Every structure is written in C-alpha cells, then in structure tokens.
Amino acid sequence: MSAYRTGVVVIACSAGLWAQTLAPVISPRGVVNAFSQQPAPSQVGAGSIIWINGLNLGPAAGAAADGPTWPTELGGVQVLINNRPSPLGSVSPPRIVAQVPFETPNGLMNVVVRRGEQTSRPARITVFAVFPVVRTAEDKGFGEVAGAAAGSNFSFTASGLGVSDPRVNTGESAGGEA
After folding, report:
1. Which domains, from first to last, does the chain contain?
2. E strands along 8-142, which residues?
3. S-S: 48 plus which of 72, 74, 86, 160, CB 3.0-4.6 Å?
4. What confidence score (pLDDT) does residue 21 get?
5. Residue 28, φ and ψ in degrees, nearest 5
C-alpha cells in the first residue's frame, strides 16, 4: 500500500512540473485563415488574420492587445512566420489571433509559437501577396457576409487585400473610412 501512495505523490508532482514546462503545441491543421476558416495549410494573403489553435499557446489568464497597433510579443508569447515576428491580437492557452506580416513573401511558410524559452513544432500556411476574404456572420467562414448597412452604404471587414494606399503597416488597424 505505501508503494502505491508514493507512486501517486510522485505522479502528482511530476504532473505539476510537466504543466509548467510544457512547450506550446499547434494542433494538426491548427493554423487557419480567421475569415475563411480554411484549415492548414491555410491560404492567406499578406496582412491576413490567422487563428492558431492548440495547447499551452498562451498564459492561463490570456492577454489581448490594447490600442490600434498590435505588438509582436504579448503575454510572453511570440509567433514567427518564417522567422519574422507577427503582430498578436490575443493569446490564450487554446488560441492565438495573429496577423501575417505584409512583408511575408509568397509561398509555403512555417508558423512557430514561442512561449518563454519553449518553441512549438512548425505548422504551415501558404501566403499570397493578395488573397481577399470577407468576414462572415458568426465567423463561420461561409454564408452571409458580416456587415452593417447605413443608407446606401454597406460596411464589412475583409482580410488579405495586400498593401493599401495609403499604406497600413503591419500590426496597425486600417480603421477609418475608405
């Protein structure tokens, strides 16, 4: 009986230490275009918003960017797309919201999450200079466009439109009216 009790204590201690040192894990097919919901290897345009889904990605309490410019480190977390830091909108244990930098070249790119000294295995996305996608109702990735009508105008959110004029820099909100 005492050996069993000792085993339980050792397992409990090991589990506690394991949870503290567990590296971030990106789920298989876990990097998706936030607007189209297409799973990995998701197709995105430079400047697109992506969701990175997995385990131990961010701090337990989560963190969100405040202000019009997203930081490239948030809550001790960084996302690197082909070694280029990505702006982060929010981080939590199961999901990160990030932007693909406008400066990312076309092609198949590695996505890595770094949390403290721990790094995930790479996941993949395919980046294009332009790959427009509109946001849909309830973020389903299909169906009705999410937007608002005001008189003869209809406003909606799109991603992957490429470099704009005037230019919006990586991590900045386009905001305003066109």
Report:
1. 2-159 (2.60.40.10)
2. 25-33, 42-45, 49-55, 63-64, 77-81, 84-85, 88-91, 95-99, 107-115, 118-119, 123-128, 133-134
3. 160
4. 58
5. -55, 135
Cα 120 to Cα 54: distance, rounded to the nearest angstrom: 10
| pLDDT of amino acid 171 | 78
Parallel, antiparallel, or unpaired: how do β-strands 123-128 and 42-45 relate?
Answer: parallel
User: How far is 61 from 52, CA to CA, in rounded Å?
Assistant: 17
Q: How many CB atoms lie within 10 A of CB 106?
A: 13
Q: What does the pLDDT average to over 63-70?
A: 93
pLDDT of residue 174: 62
Q: Is the pLDDT of residue 22 over 60?
A: yes
Largest separation between any pair of C-alpha atoms in the chain: 77
The separation between CA 58 and the C-alpha centre of its own chain, rounded to angstroms, equals 11
Rounded-to-integer distance, Cα 70 and Cα 174, Å: 12
Residue 175 clears pLDDT 90, i.e. is over it: no
